[in-house]
Amino acid sequence: MLAMSVLWPMGAASTAASVGLRERASPVRIIDAWWLAIRYNVPPLEYFLHQLWRSERRARLDDYLYWHENGPALAGLNAVVGGDGELGPVANKQFFSEFCDGLDLPSPRSFGVWKKGDPVGENSLPRANLWLKPSCGSQGIGAERWRWKDGGYRRGALVLTPDAMAEHIAEHARQHSETLVQEVIKAWPSHAPIIGPSPLCARIVTGRRRNGDVDIIDAMAVWPREGSDITQGGHIAMIELHSGQIGPVYEASETCASRQLEGSQLPNWQEALDYVRKGHSELPHFIFLGWDIAFGDGGPVLLEANAGWGCFHFQAVPDHPIADTPFASIVEEYI
Predict the structure, then answer these.
(1) Does residue 179 sit in the same domain as residue 194?
(2) Residue 11 sits in which domain range?
(3) Looking at the structure, do residues 173 and 232 belong to the same domain, yes or no?
(4) What is the pLDDT of residue 317?
(5) Smallest Cα–Cα separation from 185: which of 220, 224, 213, 214?
(6) What is the dihedral of CA 303, 306, 312, 318, to 10 degrees?
(7) Lowest CB count within 10 Å: 36, 247, 258, 275, which one?
(8) What is the DSSP string of 8-20?
(9) Is the distance from CB of 123 to CB of 302 less than 8 angstroms?
């Protein structure tokens, strides 16, 4: 109660002022952003992102899903179908890998799991490029990519022998409770000259209807910026759902090399859609999921599924309310 009556108005005023000044907005527009926050709980950041001072967009305030509604709304919907907060393969990368293996869905090859510093079961450490991932991590936090070259594992200026790498993995697992070691997926051949060795990924959002049918809600491409191994903070572009064609790169300069991908078609796009539909059909306690798929040199590979898939950029690149997707009609089936 205190948050809504005191903290929310104060935070809304601060955000409206800071974002408004950054956008060089007039005082009238800043006050308008604050008023919508107080009157309709519209976050000021999204007021400016969606340009809600424009009459045609303001008329559709209720058609957007705002960031502070995303988590509670999805959790509430999942509760309708028996979701109890137990995420299983949706929260744990090791469980997700096993889930994919059981359904014959492509996922990165796993070389072992370490829990709190100790290997679990049979583990192998190949002389090859490796990913170290916290099993329950998100947003790339704690993920490390290592390159095998000249008898050692290399990351930046650091070089480790195989024995030293085994100890490093154990320490990584002590820090993150559980570490999954997986193969490194290489970029699709025609993508590599443009974006480098790390693959372009897609976040595909699926929705499960009451009768079990799985719809594709939306899809976005994301890939690392120069010098990075992870997609967090990378370039993004929407994907045309029927063709798999990559749209305009969001906020990219005219000289940005990644713009060469605009208009190109993702390889084996229909296969990727089939994979996420099959996966979601086996997870009935989640009405909506966001699937991360890498388009590697061997085709699409499933990386993870997310219960909180993020509505922010999906509605801004370009601006389109989530009500324009099948999301709204699926929600109506459960309320």
Answers:
(1) no
(2) 2-61
(3) no
(4) 84
(5) 224
(6) 50
(7) 247
(8) HHHHHHHHHHHHH
(9) no
Q: Specify the residue for token string 């296969």.
A: 271
For the chain, helix, strand, coil in percent to 5 are: 40, 25, 40
pLDDT at site 254: 86
Contact 93, 111 (CB under 8 A): no
Q: What are phi and psi of 169, to 5 degrees?
A: -65, -40
How many alpha carbons lie under 13 Å from residue 42 in its C-beta half-sphere? 25
Check whether residue 310 and residue 196 sit in a common domain: yes
| 238 lies in some domain | yes
| Rounded CA separation 20/27 (Å) | 8
Co-location of 240 and 326 in the same domain:
yes
Give the start-end residues of each E strand in 209-287: 214-223, 235-238
Residues 140 and 220 in one domain: no
Residue whose C-alpha is closest to residue 299's, from 171, 218, 200, 217 = 200
Does residue 134 lie in a domain region? yes
Q: How far apart are CA 294 and CA 182, in angstroms?
A: 14
Together in a domain, 326 and 239: yes
Q: Strand, coil or helix: what is 321?
A: coil
